[in-house]
Write a structure and sequence with these properties.
2 domains, six-stranded mixed beta sheet, 11 helices, four-stranded antiparallel beta sheet, Ribosomal Protein S5, domain 2, binds alpha-D-galactopyranose, globular, 23% strand, Alpha-Beta Plaits, alpha+beta, 380 residues, 13 strands
Length: 380
Amino acid sequence: MKTKIAEKFKTLFGEDGDFFASAGRINLIGEHTDYNGGYVFPGAVDKGIMAEIKLNGTDKVHVYSLDMDEYVEFGLNEEDAPAQSWARYIFGVCRETIKRGGKIAGFDTVFAGDVPLGAGMSSSAALESTYAFALNYLFDCNIDKFELARIGQSTEHNYCGVKCGIMDQFASVFGKAGNLMRLDCKTMEYKYYPFHPEGYRLVLLDSVVKHELASSAYNKRRESCERAAAAIRKNHPEVEFLRDARMEWLEEVRTVISEEDYMRAEYVIDEVQRVLDVCDALEKDDYETVGKKMYETHYGMSRLYEVSCEELDYLNDIAKECGVTGSRVMGGGFGGCTINLVRNELYDSFIEKAKKAFSEKYGHEPKVYDVVISDGARKL
Ligand code: GLA
């Protein structure tokens, strides 16, 4: 990938720049908890975005996407937003950096990536954090790492229409090889957890299903959670986020909120606790409990939060039938991957069975990605 980027850069701009990269992410457990002030448990992966960049002494950005085979130019003022959705991520990062006092000027850049799109591994966060990290470095902006993650998040909110939480950008900026990270999204305290599950492997099965309108459905989930938290807050003023609520308190407002909002909140309150339970289990190397919690998350995401789909439920069923330790839909949902915790000796038969059964039913095999937990944003 680096060679291809360098060749294209040379052809387009006639010189060489600096290389930067960042990563996509997995999440062991803690889904849709981030914007509820809860815990998440992600790690960066060995699939990401790489970019070559050189300042060009103008006030324009010249960017070429190798994967889209498309060239775009834009200025750095609010009204200069490009139409291409992929370019809006980079434009958004420039704008959000400027809003934070960064003195950004024009640059030339070529980028490419190998995070599967729509797989729920957050290719967009990888793109945002590559550029947030690079611009901070190249323009000496002195922005700290949390703020770099927030630049990516605000890009999603203000330029891409997704009211996401902080998990993906956090994982992409803070990722460290061999480590998962538990982040408390209320206090932003985090802890690295070396993750080498003896006797087990983590593998993703990509349904290759991508649903339209995922971002509006995502935003609707967030609104449900905010309504439920607001209702609970009337009785319990200490409840800033759903993360602060107890199930009994949700029960008290059952008749005040819609059935749908109730189900969403029920899932979130359980899920926040599941992350803590998984951390305890990991400290005891108790992977059976980790796996059990993953199945519980899948059930909640499918039946209460309603962000799974038929294909992902089917992959989850196959995992269960094969005796896989843990399996669940990963990321925002509405398509994408399941993440599976599999005993080494079961791995081959599980993958074979999943490919066969899935393609018999849906006409194509799921894609298989072995998880390698890697470093996040960096200069190469
Ligand atoms: C998407 C969002 C994250 C998070 C997950 C669900 O990946 O970008 O902020 O909410 O969905 O856990």
